[in-house]
Amino acid sequence: MVELLSESVLRLVYLVSAVFFIQGLRDMTHPRTAVRGNLLSSLGMLTAVGVTVLWFDVISPAVLIGGLVVGSLIGAGLAVKVEMTQMPQLVGVFNGFGGGASALVAGAELVEYRIEIGGAFPLEMGIAAAASGIIGAVTLFGSMVAAGKLHGVVTGSAIRYTGEQAVKAVLLATAVLSGVYLVVQPDVLSTALQGTWVPSYWLLVLAASVLGVMLVIPIGGADMPVVIALLNAYSGLAAAGTGFVLNNSALIIAGTLVGAAGMILTVIMCESMNRSLANVLFGGFGEEASSEEMEDIYEGNITETSPEELEMLLDTADRVVIVPGYGMAVAQAQHAVAELGQLLDGDGVDVEFGIHPVAGRMPGHMNVLLAEADVPYDKMKELEEINPTFSQTDVVIVTGANDVVNPRANEDDSSPISGMPVLNVNEAGTVIVNKRSLSPGFSGIPNPLFAEDNTYMLFGDGKEMMQNVVNEYKESN
Amino acid sequence: MPMTEFITNLTFFVLAAFLGYSVITKIPATLHTPLMSGANAITGITLVGAVVVAGSGSTTFATVLGFLAVVMATVNVVGGYMVSHFMLQDFHGGGDG
């Protein structure tokens, strides 16, 4: 009876922590309440883990405490040390660990079952464990490759080879067949294949791990926002799968919420590029930059400008929009850009930041960089909000962005970016594009914006150029 | 009764998916990075499962697996919530900036 009571208590506490997670996510709908939301969510986690530790018979507390301490130290150490520009790869690494943990837990549970109860696994347990193992292992290794690409340890370019899809298909088939074997467990095969350490599960994990690497290797660096979002969804689904194995409602609810979040972000990222998820994952993207086409468009039509000239333009402007791209993060120019925004704002100029959903290397990447540089969130505008305002804007400063401001996307000319929603900066009075050269963006196509009459190119390193503009502005005002 | 239990679990799954969809579509793009790292931390709920197997493992193999799972999940939870917190603290409105 006491036992029954405590199981009810355990389940009730899991319900409480699920409520914390949901309210925490609800608080994330506004920057004002988001800090509280994150704390609520972490409180939910503490509650769920705490009650689990107290309720279950802990045979070896040293192992448990040791694991918690080691994990906390690593996690906190990484979180404290990370630079804001390195956030995408760190989120990728954390994500991978979540997926890996789910795969390990499902495996450990199978091993325990084999030893303590023996015989065939119940059908739903086998299915859930197989799903959790495949998704978890793909997440772990896929995330590590994605993080490696973002960090520059693995080449950011898309690595493609003949027979690529066949290799992936064979790996997936191996993983799925191992899963089927795990579920069906035919007695026709030798008992060695059904050993107490459940070898078929680990074969599944091995195949899925290699599959994770192979899935992400062929994807280019600029597509990593989609990959990171998708892997985020996978890690949630892996946790939900593990919840089915363990019959644990807390895991199922929390894992599914994360799965939904990741899927939504994935869809937003794909729509923002007007590409299907299948195209991002399996199709090649971009074309070889044709120098003839570039010369055709750029020859004689490029006007250069200087920080001094830009400063003079800003002196007479009433409304300025700054459009940042991944180049701003690479050049670490966000503080100079933010300072320029503050100076203009202080002089009564209407300054806003126009942020494309796929600018940067993860969803919302530009926003966290600018927020760290003290740009207020109400100055950061989404594509739908900022686009109607360009016609009333005097000066647009594009820094480190290319494809997301390419007017060719609005034309139905079957270019790689055709149909992609872009920031229509060319509707503004004057457009200043800060870039190191005329080299094409990820799509590989030239940008006619650079050749337009009201566009001026400010060639040079983003940080240096923006700092020069700031200095000029300070001197003359 | 395992089948009815499975169906109960499936109910949680389906309802949570709908709930997640309706809540998360309301989150503005400006908070998508902290949303991801925070959601990431929630994935660490698998720590609950890891605690169960690490603490109650009856074989060395299961205990080792449990230990590794606890370490990985804890990195995910602690790191994820901390980076989200740091990022969210940076967000402020025009009034106080």
UniProtKB/TrEMBL annotation, chain A:
GO terms for molecular function: NADP binding; proton-translocating NAD(P)+ transhydrogenase activity. Its EC number is 7.1.1.1. It is an enzyme of class 7 (translocase). It comes from Natronomonas aquatica. Residues 12-471 form the NADP transhydrogenase beta-like domain. The keyword Mitochondrion does not apply. This is NAD(P) transhydrogenase subunit beta. Keywords: Cell inner membrane, Cell membrane, Membrane, NAD, NADP, Translocase, Transmembrane, Transmembrane helix. SUPFAM superfamilies: DHS-like NAD/FAD-binding domain. Belongs to the PNT beta subunit family. Its main location: membrane.
